[in-house]
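request received
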Amino acid sequence: MKFSSTELKQFKIIEKDEEYNPEKIIGDSLDHAVFLGKIKVSAQAKLIDNNVFVKGEISSRIKFRCVRCLNEFEKGHSTKFQQFYSLEEEIIDLSNEIRESILIDLPLHPVCQINCKGVVPELASQNNPSTFYSEELKSDPRWDQLKKINLKGNKSN
Ligand SMILES: [Zn+2]
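response:
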């Protein structure tokens, strides 16, 4: 998205709504997120003294892979940005700002839902046990018996 300084001097405020192909904004595809459809950007550029204040909102639809259950899921994503630019530049180009705002805001460890139980216990490796698995161990009544034995042992020492 670009704004012209000449136009801003004339109109003081300019608003724009544009849609972009994801590869045009993000460039190389990401490992943990696939953009579905276009990335929408709405922004307002406003002349303040000799600067241009730009604020905007970016929205898109993204397919993630849940880090717990490994299932793919789709989610709407939106983020806001704001930035000052110098009026000395004839063309104010928001490309970098838009790209960085999206990348910073994307979840690094996407989860399909807050209480996702993760993979089923049979598939959980010992290096990466799921929450579901460890909760089962905590509530296993057989551990209570072991605790009693340990207590007795401590007393006799
Ligand atoms: Zn999940």
